[in-house]
Predict the structure.
Amino acid sequence: MEKLLESIKIGINDKLYVKDPESSELGKRIIEESILMIDAMGFESFTFKKLGVKIGSNESSIYRYFENKHKLLLYLASWYWGWLEYQLVFSTNSMTDVAEKLKKAIQIITKTTEQDSSFSHINEVLLNNIVINEYSKSYLTKEVDTENKDGYFVIYKRLVNRLSSMISALNEGYRYPSSLASTVLESSLHQQFLKDHFTSLTDCRENDDFTTYFTQLVFNSLNTKSHG
């Protein structure tokens, strides 16, 4: 899979940027440093002015790539969901056992993130931290309905739909496949947040606990054995 990923470009809605950051070294530096800074200081404290100082470029040069930091956050989140989607597709595409395929998908979505050398300018571990801590800020806005119509969340929704289809393939009679799929995706982030900040509110302590918990949750909901 690593060899295949080296030749893949994560496709992002072009409405999220003014100029594709993947098209230049400056754009890639903007992405690389913004991930480091947002992870370190939080989205609220992050500004394009601070980013400009960090990369040794004028603030105006950043605006040539992104209209504002909200769209930058949407871009980063979309890239993360696209990266996760590619892993899911490549890892499950050749699997024929629907139960094992669903288990693998849950594992990919809930496992601890490791850095991927295929994308040298993006630290996926820190990006995962940003998605855990900041992603809700990208859609809990007054403009969410308009942005949804403009396709800003299409990759996230596509990932939910892929998981939903796998759930339906295992149990065609289950009435809530999309609800269960979106619950797994959102709750996996929430459980990781609780593990880091409110440990008394979650029983997930070790990295494998998330996959075990959500596998049991899904298969118990479907009244289907998870085959261990």
User: Anything to note?
Assistant: Residues 2-221 form a domain with the Tetracycline Repressor; domain 2 fold (CATH 1.10.357.10). DSSP finds twelve helices and no strands in the chain. The first helix runs from residue 2 to 6. The radius of gyration is 18 Å.
